[in-house]
Amino acid sequence: MRAIDLQNPRDLAAVLPGTDVRMILCGHAHHAGASALAGFPVWIAPATAHRAELLSPAGRARGRAGAALTRVDVYPDAVVAAAEPLEETELLMDTDERTLTEAMQAAARR
Fold first, then answer.
1. Single pTM value for the model
2. pLDDT tops 70 at residue 33
3. Which residue of 21, 26, 46, 107 lies most exposed, with the fewest beta carbons within 10 A?
């Protein structure tokens, strides 16, 4: 993966302060990930084709079926990025927002 890393990260880091940049979005690594550059969050978007097996044996590169997209929510005081797999999986929960919020608040009080 080092071959496709940003070649001059210091150059980018030097121009970020004082801008309206809130998060750096990049991709084509076939896996989701997060980092930081000059104090700015970096989100590595997953691929929409297949995923890289990050725990491949030493000296091997493996790809697995499975694709995902990135959802980015921009708020006045935060930016949140999350990967959402595109394949169908077993549904484990289906509840309305109010019930979920109440359950989370009750758990936080414990």
1. 0.78
2. yes
3. 107
The pLDDT value given to residue 107: 94
DSSP secondary structure code for residue 96 in this structure: -
pLDDT recorded at residue 3: 73
15: closest CA among 34, 36, 38, 35?
Answer: 38
Cα 83–Cα 88–Cα 91 angle in degrees, nearest 5: 90
Give me the mean pLDDT over the 72-83 stretch.
96
Supply the range of the domain harboring residue 33: 2-109
* Euclidean distance between CA atoms 9 and 83, whole angstroms: 24
**Partner residues linked to 75 by β-bridges:** 78
User: Taking the C-alpha atoms of 31, 32, 35 and 37 in order, what is their torsion angle to the nearest 10 degrees?
Assistant: 80
3-state secondary structure of 9: helix
Domain total for the chain? Answer: 1
